[in-house]
Write a structure and sequence with these properties.
CATH superfamily of the largest domain: Alpha-D-Glucose-1,6-Bisphosphate, subunit A, domain 3
Radius of gyration: 24 Å
Distance between the termini: 27 Å
Number of strands: 23
Shape: globular
Number of helices: 20
Bound molecules: 6-O-phosphono-alpha-D-glucopyranose
Largest sheet: 8 strands, antiparallel
Length: about 575
C-alpha cells in the first residue's frame, strides 16, 4: 500500500475532526510513524481487531471500528432476517473509547436492521459470551484489548455459540471490510431513536443475575467455604477493570465473608495508573495488593485483568514471601482440585476430559491421566478450546471438566465459551477454602502437586518486535526456521520437529515424517532429548515472538536448570 497517499487521503478527508486532523499533522515529518499508521489496515483475524489507539488505517479509532461493525453487519444481513432479529450482544471494558466504540457499533448494526443488546456499563468478557448464549444472539462484540498496555484497544467478535468468530465467518467480515469505504461506506443512525424503537436494548443488572446464577452452579464443593468463612481472608484486585463488581459479588455468594479489595485498583480507569501492564502475568501489578495482604496477614491474592477473562494469583510461601503462580501452575492446581472435589461429591461425569493448548504444561496431562481423565490439546486461543468443547457436545465422546491456557485463562461450565475470571476466581477461592479445611494452604497443595505428578517447569521468553520492521522480521524468522531446520537447541539434540503450519512431524535422525491432527498455524515445535520442548510462535495479540520452554526434571531445581539453559538459546535464535 502507498502509505503516503493513504495518509494524505485521510488528512484531506472532511470526516476528520479538527483534533483528529491535528494528530495526523503532528506526525507529518515522521515518515516511520506515517508508515506504521498507514502501511496496511489492521488485520481482522479470528480474534477481531487489536491495535494502538490513534488516527490512521492501522490504528484503533472510530473509522476502523466503523468499518469492522459494517463488515459484521453485512455478514449478519447475508444470514437473513431471522439472524438479524436474533441480534448482537455488545460489551466493553474500562479502556479509553471502549464505551464510545460500543455505542457506535450498536448504531451501525441497528442502521442495517440488526437488533442489538448493549450493556449499560463495562462487563467481564465472559459475561458477553454468556449473554450471546442466554439471549440466543447471532453474534457478539466486545470492545477490549484484554491485558494489553493502555495504548491499545480491540474489537473482539463472537459468533452464536458464544466463542470467538470461526475462521470462515472472520474471512467474510474481513472481505466485507475491504469492500467498505472507511469514510463513506458505513451507515449509521441516531442512538436515541434506536433505543426508543427497541432496535437497541440496554442490558443491565438482570443479565448479571442470570450470569452469576450460572457461575455459581460451577462451584463443586461450596460447603467447604462455609466451614472456614469466619476466619478465611483474601485480597482481590481488578486492575482498574471489569472484574470490580462481579468478582467480589461471586465470592460473597460463595460464602466468603472477608474479601479485601485493593481500593486504588478498584477505581475504573483506562490509564491503569497503578500498573505498568494490567496483566496478571506480571508481578509488578500485584505490588499494592501484596502490601495490603501483608498488612492484613492474608495468604491468597486474586487479580483479574481489565476485561476479567484472565486470572492471576499470588500466595504467601513458607518464608512469608509473596510469590506469583504461573498460569500453568494455577491450571494444574485447579485440575487436581476439581477432580478431587468431583470424586468427593460424586459428581464426576462419564468420559471426563480436560483441555489445554499445545503451549500449556504437560503437567496438566500427567494430573489428568493419573486420575483417569483424558487430556486434549488445541492451538493457542480460547476459540480453539471452545471448538473442542462443541465437538464433544456433538459427538458425546467426552464431557469437559475444565479448559485452560498457560496465558492465565480458565473455564469450567457450559454457560460461556470464553475464559472466565469470575468463575476462575470463585474456583480458586473454593479450592483455597478446601485446603484450609484440610489444614493446608494453597502453597502446601502446590508443593504436594509436584510430588504427585513430577517436577515440571516452564518459562515463556517473549521478544518484542515492534512496527513494520518487526512484522517483517517475524516473517523472516519463521521462514528461516523452516528453511534451515534446527538440529540442536542450546546443548540439546532436536529429536523431532513439528511444523504446525503443514502439520508435519519430522524425525530429525532420518527425516521420516508423519501427518499430525492439528495444522494451519504458524508454530514451530521442537521435541528435544530428555522430554524437553521448545516452541516458537509469533503472538496473535502483541508484536512479539514467544518462545515456550517446558521441561521435566528429577527435582524442582533440575527442571528449572534445564529451562534456564534454554532461555539463553531462545534469545540466540530469536533475534
Ligand atoms: O500468545 P498470544 O497470541 O498473544 O495469545 C495469548 C492469549 O491471548 C488472548 O488472551 C486469547 O484470548 C487467548 O486465548 C490467548 O492464549
Amino acid at each position: 500500500m502507498d502509505y503516503i497517499a493513504e495518509y494524505k487521503r485521510w488528512l484531506e478527508n472532511p470526516a476528520l475532526t479538527e483534533n483528529e486532523r491535528a494528530e495526523l499533522q503532528s506526525v507529518q515529518e515522521n515518515k516511520e510513524e506515517i508508515e506504521s499508521r498507514f502501511f496496511a489496515p489492521l488485520s481482522f483475524g479470528t480474534a477481531g481487531l487489536r491495535g494502538v489507539l490513534g488516527v490512521g488505517l492501522n490504528r484503533m479509532n472510530r473509522f476502523t471500528v466503523g468499518q469492522a461493525a459494517q463488515g459484521l453487519a453485512n455478514l449478519i444481513v447475508s444470514n437473513g432476517k431471522a439472524a438479524m432479529d436474533r441480534g448482537v450482544a455488545i460489551a466493553y471494558d474500562s479502556r479509553h473509547f471502549s464505551p464510545e466504540f460500543a455505542k457506535q457499533s450498536a448504531c451501525i448494526l441497528a442502521a442495517s436492521g440488526i437488533k442489538t443488546l448493549l450493556f449499560d456499563e463495562l462487563r467481564p468478557t465472559p459475561e458477553l459470551s454468556f449473554a450471546i448464549r442466554h439471549y440466543g444472539c447471532i453474534a457478539g462484540i466486545n470492545i477490549t484489548a484484554s491485558h494489553n498496555p493502555k495504548e491499545y484497544n480491540g474489537y473482539k467478535v463472537y459468533w452464536e455459540d458464544g466463542a470467538q468468530l470461526p475462521p470462515a465467518e472472520a474471512d467474510v467480515v474481513a472481505k466485507e471490510m475491504a469492500a467498505t469505504d472507511i469514510f463513506s461506506g458505513v451507515r449509521t443512525g441516531d442512538y436515541g431513536a434506536f433505543v426508543e424503537s427497541g432496535m437497541i436494548r440496554i442490558l443491565g443488572r438482570e443479565t448479571d443475575e442470570a450470569y452469576l446464577n450460572e457461575v455459581l452452579k460451577v462451584a463443586v464443593n461450596p460447603d467447604c467455604v462455609k466451614q472456614v468463612a469466619d476466619e478465611f481472608k483474601l485480597v482481590y484486585t481488578p486492575f482498574h477493570g471489569a472484574g470490580y463488581r462481579l468478582v467480589p459479588e461471586i465470592l460473597r455468594r460463595l460464602g466468603y465473608k472477608h474479601i479485601i479489595c485493593e481500593p486504588e485498583q478498584m477505581k475504573i480507569d483506562g490509564d491503569f495508573p497503578t500498573v505498568k501492564n494490567p496483566n496478571p502475568e506480571y508481578k509488578e501489578g500485584f505490588n499494592l495488593a501484596i502490601e495490603l495482604a501483608r498488612r492484613n496477614d492474608v495468604d491468597l491474592i486474586i487479580g483479574t485483568d481489565p476485561d476479567a477473562d484472565r486470572t492471576g494469583i499470588v500466595l504467601k510461601d513458607k518464608t512469608g514471601d509473596y510469590v506469583t503462580l504461573s498460569g500453568n501452575q494455577v491450571g494444574v492446581l485447579l485440575i487436581d482440585y476439581i477432580i478431587t472435589a468431583r470424586k468427593l461429591t460424586n459428581t464426576m461425569p462419564a468420559h471426563p476430559a480436560v483441555l489445554k493448548s499445545i503451549v500449556t504444561t504437560e503437567m496438566a496431562r500427567a494430573a489428568a491421566e493419573k486420575n483417569g481423565v483424558a487430556c486434549f490439546d488445541t492451538f493457542t486461543g480460547f476459540k480453539f478450546l471452545a471448538e473442542k468443547i462443541k465437538q464433544f457436545e456433538k459427538t458425546g465422546s467426552h464431557k469437559y471438566l475444565f479448559a485452560f491456557e498457560e496465558s492465565y485463562g480458565y473455564l469450567a461450565g457450559d454457560y460461556a465459551r470464553d475464559k472466565d475470571a469470575v468463575t476462575a476466581s470463585m474456583l480458586i477461592a473454593e479450592m483455597a477454602a478446601y485446603y484450609r479445611t484440610q489444614g493446608k494452604t494453597l502453597y502446601d497443595a502446590m508443593e504436594e502437586m509436584y510430588e504427585k505428578y513430577g517436577y515440571y517447569c516452564e518459562k515463556t521468553v517473549s521478544i518484542t518486535m515492534p512496527g513494520v520492521s518487526g512484522l517483517t522480521r517475524m516473517k523472516e524468522l519463521m521462514a528461516e526456521l523452516r528453511e534451515k531446520p534446527l538440529g540442536r537447541i542450546g546443548t540439546h539434540q532436536v529429536e523431532y520437529t513439528r511444523d504446525y503450519m503443514s502439520g508435519i512431524r519430522t524425525r530429525m535422525a532420518d527425516g521420516s515424517a508423519e501427518q499430525m491432527e492439528l495444522k494451519g498455524q504458524n508454530v514451530m515445535y521442537y521435541e528435544l532429548e530428555g522430554g524437553t520442548t521448545f516452541i516458537i510462535r509469533p503472538s496473535g495479540t502483541e508484536p512479539k515472538v514467544k518462545v515456550y520452554i517446558m521441561a521435566k526434571g528429577d527435582s524442582k531445581a533440575a527442571a528449572a536448570e534445564k529451562v534456564e539453559a534454554l532461555s539463553a538459546a531462545a534469545k540466540e535464535i530469536v533475534r
